[in-house]
Amino acid sequence: MYADDIQIYRSSTLQNLGSAIAAINNDMAAISEWSRQYGLKVNPAKSKAIVIGSSGMIARVDWLSIPSVIYNGIAIPFCDSVKDLGVYLDRELSWTVHVKELSQKVFVAMSSLRRLQSFLPIPTKVMLAHSLFLSILDYADASFLNLTEDQLNKLERLQNLAIRFIFGLRKYDHVSVFRQKLKWLPIRRRRDMHVLSLLYCVLFHLNTPSYLKEKFTFLGEQSGVRSCRALTLCMPYHKTKFYKRSFSVRAVELWNALPLSIRRSKSLAIFKRAVKAHYIVNDF
User: Fold this and answer.
1) Which of 57, 178, 182, 217 is 20 to 30 A distant from 27 in Cα terms?
2) Is residue 7 included in any domain, yes or no?
3) Residues in domain Reverse transcriptase (predicted)?
């Protein structure tokens, strides 16, 4: 019996990278012993290791001298990118590989449906677009908030491809009017809506892990002042562009920009409908 998915993370500076890898190897030895006792197997041939950091830090790593990650005497190679629960992570978290993979998946799905484009009714094509195209673009999009404008434009073009499939449009036909007919949000707003939906769950669902809840605090929550009743969140202190694009900061920005009536929604379903309607009215 094989273990399905095991992940180990360690934070480290460049100077202490060797020590971090040594600690991971200790964890790997413990996992090996535990799996042996319980009859599980870990396949190191299908395992990968990656060092993630800034471009400057990655450029200074001496790949020939750093120790290997070892499992049962087998070295696990360091890779430029790894796949984690369907999300592709590269060394600098630039999302270049992930956006490329999304594009390939959408084009593969499109190629299989293009020959049926003239025969399918529009409601069927809308259903197929939701299941085969938008599901790919929406998956885990709240986790990569630091996409560049060029990457976001690529994703927007992929959504436009789905709209052209539905209405039989040519390559250079404008799609804005048709997107309005479908009541689809632009790709940036779709992601914002997913970020807000996730934040709503963090704030109000009882089973949300405490390490997530503690990242968000309402203004005046301790003293019970009016700002707490207005459901305004404290903005986390941030200085860098990288942190500004993090979920903790971006989610608070989007939340505080919503009308109070939406923030007071009694359930996630009501909240999602209200956010979408709000964005459709203001963006269209």
Assistant:
1) 57
2) no
3) 1-76
